[in-house]
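Hypothesis: this fold can be encoded by more than one sequence.
Test: take the structure tokens below, design a sequence, compare later.
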């Protein structure tokens, strides 16, 4: 007596396990309220006795008695195979990065960072008289330096 068993058609997404293929079945149904077509994806672990399924194949699976903890389906038929295009290794272009350019850029960044650090250290070590912070302070320092020189000049003129 043959039971009516559920059958599904899906795509193999993984075949890494021994005698097992993971099959994704996509169903399309209209949404109850919005009447828009909604896709539902379901994954099934299916028993593949001879490990014939490859990733990308379209297969038919059928409901079966429990085979393991998660396997309740078996692969009954491989409907179509995914065409794999084989490209010779010589035609594959691998982009080559020049290590010299990378090293030069890294050295330039390191040198610029060292220059910035040295400038900061010099700025911190300088006395307040040596490092004017603003333009106004620079002008004030210049005027202060100019006045004593003029007084010295005036004193020098008075003495002879």
């Amino acid at each position: 007596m043959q039971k009516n068993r559920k059958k599904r058609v899906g795509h193999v997404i993984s075949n890494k396990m021994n005698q097992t293929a993971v099959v994704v079945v996509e169903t399309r149904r209209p949404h109850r309220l919005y009447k828009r077509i909604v896709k539902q994806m379901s994954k099934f672990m299916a028993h593949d006795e001879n490990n014939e399924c490859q990733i990308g194949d379209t297969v038919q699976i059928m409901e079966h008695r429990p085979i393991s903890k998660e396997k309740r389906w078996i692969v009954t038929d491989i409907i179509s195979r995914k065409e794999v295009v084989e490209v010779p290794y010589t035609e594959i272009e691998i982009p080559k990065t020049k290590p010299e350019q990378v090293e030069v850029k890294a050295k330039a960044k390191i040198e610029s960072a060292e220059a910035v650090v040295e400038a900061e250290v010099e700025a911190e070590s300088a006395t307040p008289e040596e490092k004017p912070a603003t333009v106004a302070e620079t002008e004030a320092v210049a005027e202060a330096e100019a006045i004593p020189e003029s007084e010295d000049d005036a004193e020098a003129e008075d003495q002879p």
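Strands lie at 7-14, 20-30, 37-47, 58-63, 71-80. The helical segments are 99-125, 135-158.
Hypothesis status: open.
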